[in-house]
């Protein structure tokens, strides 16, 4: 009987001490912890989260009118969301002028991060008989701007005045479009290579996501700026060197460049598209392949 009374006294003492500790904790910490789904300040964070693809309205954020709200279902403007990085991307585009025209090439792979996701996708396009376009960067952004380009071409055709958009005009228009999107803090993540025949002379230019633009004998984007330009240095540093370069030699140079890019760039593909624009018009070859040689592969160890 004595043992039983002692046990009861000990249990009551522990309970009193426990309640005292909780009382002190509640005074120091007025925000209590509740289980998930309970009615508390933490409730909306767990049980009332954002819809798929939406953004969470964190407690205490400012909504329209300057009021502080803690619930995610309160309407308000939480700022315009921006895209900060591309998702599905294409790698290098290389352009080269020769004495009779322009040649632009790009492989046919669209990567999802580092995953070789979409194969056999053209990244070199004929705009009209005088203009070609190669794209690198985010492919979704290009699909967006391509709709506007197609509509611009249709508008020119509807005028039926036998006057097509020239490559320099197209180049300037893309510069304004890209700079406008950059100024709105919503850039199109693209590297654009524009080529064609301007009044009987070859033209080659580049526009990036900030609207920065330049013209040159040789243009490369992505990894090609590190790998392709050194191979074409002879033609890029001399402003008049392209005038001694014929189309067969330009084709051989482009084939060599695409081969090096395939070996060295892990985002590249052995199949590539190539567009040639001359005074006779535009010819696009969408089934070019890199000549591969892996005889030395068995000597590479440790990877």
From TrEMBL:
<protein>
    <recommendedName>
        <fullName>Proteasome subunit beta type-4</fullName>
    </recommendedName>
</protein>
<keyword id="KW-0963">Cytoplasm</keyword>
<comment type="function">
    <text>Non-catalytic component of the proteasome, a multicatalytic proteinase complex which is characterized by its ability to cleave peptides with Arg, Phe, Tyr, Leu, and Glu adjacent to the leaving group at neutral or slightly basic pH. The proteasome has an ATP-dependent proteolytic activity.</text>
</comment>
<dbReference type="GO" id="GO:0005737">
    <property type="term" value="C:cytoplasm"/>
</dbReference>
<dbReference type="InterPro" id="IPR023333">
    <property type="entry name" value="Proteasome_suB-type"/>
</dbReference>
<dbReference type="InterPro" id="IPR016050">
    <property type="entry name" value="Proteasome_bsu_CS"/>
</dbReference>
<dbReference type="InterPro" id="IPR001353">
    <property type="entry name" value="Proteasome_sua/b"/>
</dbReference>
<dbReference type="Pfam" id="PF00227">
    <property type="entry name" value="Proteasome"/>
</dbReference>
<comment type="subunit">
    <text>The 26S proteasome consists of a 20S proteasome core and two 19S regulatory subunits. The 20S proteasome core is composed of 28 subunits that are arranged in four stacked rings, resulting in a barrel-shaped structure. The two end rings are each formed by seven alpha subunits, and the two central rings are each formed by seven beta subunits. The catalytic chamber with the active sites is on the inside of the barrel.</text>
</comment>
<dbReference type="GO" id="GO:0005839">
    <property type="term" value="C:proteasome core complex"/>
</dbReference>
<dbReference type="InterPro" id="IPR029055">
    <property type="entry name" value="Ntn_hydrolases_N"/>
</dbReference>
<dbReference type="GO" id="GO:0051603">
    <property type="term" value="P:proteolysis involved in protein catabolic process"/>
</dbReference>
<dbReference type="InterPro" id="IPR016295">
    <property type="entry name" value="Proteasome_beta4"/>
</dbReference>
<keyword id="KW-0539">Nucleus</keyword>
<keyword id="KW-0647">Proteasome</keyword>
<dbReference type="GO" id="GO:0005634">
    <property type="term" value="C:nucleus"/>
</dbReference>
């Amino acid at each position: 009987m004595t043992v039983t009374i002692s046990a009861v006294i000990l249990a009551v003492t522990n309970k009193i001490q426990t309640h005292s500790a909780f009382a002190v904790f509640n005074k120091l910490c007025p925000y209590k912890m509740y289980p998930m789904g309970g009615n508390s300040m933490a409730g909306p964070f767990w049980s009332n989260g954002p819809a798929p693809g939406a953004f969470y309205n964190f407690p205490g954020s400012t909504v329209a009118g300057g009021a502080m709200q803690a619930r995610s279902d309160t309407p308000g403007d939480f700022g315009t969301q921006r895209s900060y990085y591309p998702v599905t991307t294409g790698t290098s585009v290389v352009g080269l002028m020769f004495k009779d025209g322009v040649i632009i090439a790009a492989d046919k792979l669209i990567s999802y991060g580092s995953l070789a996701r979409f194969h056999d996708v053209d990244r070199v396009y004929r705009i009209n008989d005088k203009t070609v376009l190669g794209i690198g960067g985010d492919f979704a952004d290009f699909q967006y701007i391509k709709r506007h380009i197609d509509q611009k071409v249709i508008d020119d055709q509807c005028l039926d005045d036998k006057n097509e958009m020239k490559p320099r005009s197209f180049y300037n228009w893309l510069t304004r479009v890209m700079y406008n999107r950059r100024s709105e803090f919503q850039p199109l993540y693209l590297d654009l290579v524009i080529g064609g025949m301007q009044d009987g002379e070859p033209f080659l230019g580049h526009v990036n996501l900030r609207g920065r633009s330049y013209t040159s004998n040789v243009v490369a984007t992505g990894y090609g700026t590190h790998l392709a330009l050194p191979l074409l240095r002879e033609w890029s540093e001399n402003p008049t060197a392209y005038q001694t370069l014929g189309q067969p030699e330009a084709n051989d140079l482009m084939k060599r460049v695409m081969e090096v890019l395939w070996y060295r760039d892990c985002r590249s593909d052995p199949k590539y598209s190539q567009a040639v624009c001359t005074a006779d018009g535009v010819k696009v070859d969408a089934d070019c392949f890199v000549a591969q040689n892996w005889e030395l592969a068995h000597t590479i160890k440790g990877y």
